[in-house]
Write a structure and sequence with these properties.
By secondary structure, this protein is α+β, with helices and mostly antiparallel strands. Helices cover 38% and strands 12% of the residues. The protein has two domains: 49 residues; 109 residues, no CATH class. The chain has a four-stranded antiparallel sheet with strand order 1-2-3-4, covered by helices on one side.
């Protein structure tokens, strides 16, 4: 679509203003390409300074996501590249026939490469978020914050199709359990 529109614009510019119109349209296209290139390089430069799959707050990321958001905008929001989910390159029919996944250690104790050690055993068996997804899910990324909450995002064709926020189970705090109150000392009257 874009190449066809560009060609039509070039033909129209040449027909209207001869070589001066052609030069003007070509220079405008080059400027447009340079602006997009600069924006991409800025986003990737920011992402290169942060760990893969890390986000400041998974809850805030979850709130800012919108359907059909491009992957590059999600990377700009998180300021880091997403960690590739270990089982993201299989179809849903293959997942039903595949043996259960081997236990994966806690993310803090395992090496953190692309897809290695990023999922707990309960998280490793998650199914695709899209209900009607029977085709291979090609792009599933995870962003995790310091509290081990994570956002799992599914992309199709570079566009966000589904996402989910998962928080770690809350441990009961010492303040939530009632403590026995000390009895006041008895005084003799």
């Amino acid at each position: 679509m874009v190449p066809l529109a560009s060609l039509a614009l070039l033909v129209w510019a040449y027909w209207s203003w001869s070589w001066m119109g052609l030069a003007m349209v070509v220079s405008a296209m080059v400027m447009w390409l340079l602006l997009h290139y600069t924006r991409l390089m800025h986003i990737f430069k920011q992402a290169s300074r942060r760990p893969i799959g890390h986000v400041d707050s998974a809850v805030m990321l979850h709130v800012k996501l919108r359907p059909n958001m491009p992957l590059i905008k999600v990377i700009a929001l998180t300021k880091s590249l997403g960690a590739v989910e270990a089982a993201s390159f299989t179809s849903t029919s293959d997942q039903a026939q595949a043996p259960s996944p081997s236990p994966i250690t806690h993310p803090r104790s395992a090496p953190t490469g692309l897809g290695e050690g990023l999922l707990t055993p309960a998280q490793a068996s998650v199914q695709p978020l899209s209900a009607a997804s029977t085709v291979a899910v090609q792009e599933v990324f995870i962003w995790r914050d310091a509290q081990d909450s994570f956002v799992r995002c599914e992309f199709e064709g570079g566009r966000l199709k589904a996402w989910a926020l998962t928080r770690p189970p809350q441990e009961p705090s010492a303040e939530a359990t009632p403590q026995p109150q000390p009895q006041p000392p008895l005084t003799a009257n």
